[in-house]
Amino acid sequence: MAEVLSQSQIDALLNSMMNSDAAEEPKEEKPEKNWKKYDFKSPKKFTKDKLKLLKGIYDNYGRLASSRLNGVLRTACEMEVLSVEEQRYFEFSNILSENDVMMMLNLKLPDESKNPPMMIHISQKLMVNMIDRMLGGTGDDDDVDSSYTYSEIESALYKKVMKYLLDITRDAWGNYIKINLGDQRLEENPGLFQEISLDEPVAIVLLNVKMQNIDGRITICIPGNLLMNIFNIIDKRKHVDGLYDEGIANSRELIMTRLNRSTMEIKAELAEAQLSMKEVCGLKVGDVIDLNKSRESDVVLYVEEQPWFRGKLGAHNKNAAVKIKQCIQEEAPADK
């Protein structure tokens, strides 16, 4: 006679079967996190915010450079920033081959500090096709590789193309800092460049340029010392600008102190005269030009090309001088 199971035995059997099914179900594997190794011996010098700021600057640079190349090469060029990273200088120098050349650009900062130059490299395929377009060619040679060697004529045109691109640097940084461009020179032996040590931190900006069916890269290497000085000047300016927004008691004095250091051009004008081209060409030493005005008449003082005062011409300590008599702004309502 078959054994009859009790209700408790049936429940236990069902529970064991359910547990065995759950155990057989494969567990979902969680994706492993990829951790980036950090080198504590050479810590990063620039924060993510600084690199993000640098990317924004060169996004603007890419738009300006694309517009400039469109006009110079008479073809559509697209430029975008691929990456902005902090690396060591040898990471940049190692990608250059023996046939590579690069441009060196010195930047003049407002603090007049001496800094190493910025380095710019353009891939041979892109540069050769740019030169071809400048000379009236089609600029679609896709067979150029890194083994290509520039001739003397191409080197001169290389400098010409780079000048178009480097002149935009001042405008790209203009929203953050006022910089002036210094010397520009072509370095034909990048491996011999020793103004920067191989372990010095640098910021490498990689831009991709697409011209018709040609793709190429522009690599900009900014030395760490130069970039630190730029960021320090930007941070100081932000700090000083913030003082005026906080409504501190001596904000007016701070503003006036900065304004008082500025210089303004002042010139005195007695009268004007108009001459024909024939009369100007006939002028010689000893000729007299009639101003149709009395020598006792008032002179007008111009401040930055704006008329501000009327005065009397005279002498002071044996030097020509003007004595201010009246403010032109004050007399304007009386003339109405």
TrEMBL record:
<keyword id="KW-1003">Cell membrane</keyword>
<dbReference type="Pfam" id="PF02154">
    <property type="entry name" value="FliM"/>
</dbReference>
<keyword id="KW-0975">Bacterial flagellum</keyword>
<dbReference type="InterPro" id="IPR001689">
    <property type="entry name" value="Flag_FliM"/>
</dbReference>
<dbReference type="GO" id="GO:0050918">
    <property type="term" value="P:positive chemotaxis"/>
</dbReference>
<protein>
    <recommendedName>
        <fullName>Flagellar motor switch protein FliM</fullName>
    </recommendedName>
</protein>
<dbReference type="InterPro" id="IPR036429">
    <property type="entry name" value="SpoA-like_sf"/>
</dbReference>
<keyword id="KW-0472">Membrane</keyword>
<keyword id="KW-0283">Flagellar rotation</keyword>
<dbReference type="GO" id="GO:0009425">
    <property type="term" value="C:bacterial-type flagellum basal body"/>
</dbReference>
<keyword id="KW-0145">Chemotaxis</keyword>
<keyword id="KW-0969">Cilium</keyword>
<comment type="similarity">
    <text>Belongs to the FliM family.</text>
</comment>
<feature type="compositionally biased region" description="Basic and acidic residues">
    <location>
        <begin position="24"/>
        <end position="36"/>
    </location>
</feature>
<dbReference type="InterPro" id="IPR001543">
    <property type="entry name" value="FliN-like_C"/>
</dbReference>
<keyword id="KW-0282">Flagellum</keyword>
<feature type="region of interest" description="Disordered">
    <location>
        <begin position="16"/>
        <end position="36"/>
    </location>
</feature>
<dbReference type="GO" id="GO:0003774">
    <property type="term" value="F:cytoskeletal motor activity"/>
</dbReference>
<dbReference type="InterPro" id="IPR028976">
    <property type="entry name" value="CheC-like_sf"/>
</dbReference>
<feature type="domain" description="Flagellar motor switch protein FliN-like C-terminal">
    <location>
        <begin position="258"/>
        <end position="328"/>
    </location>
</feature>
<dbReference type="Pfam" id="PF01052">
    <property type="entry name" value="FliMN_C"/>
</dbReference>
<dbReference type="GO" id="GO:0071978">
    <property type="term" value="P:bacterial-type flagellum-dependent swarming motility"/>
</dbReference>
<keyword id="KW-0966">Cell projection</keyword>
<dbReference type="GO" id="GO:0005886">
    <property type="term" value="C:plasma membrane"/>
</dbReference>
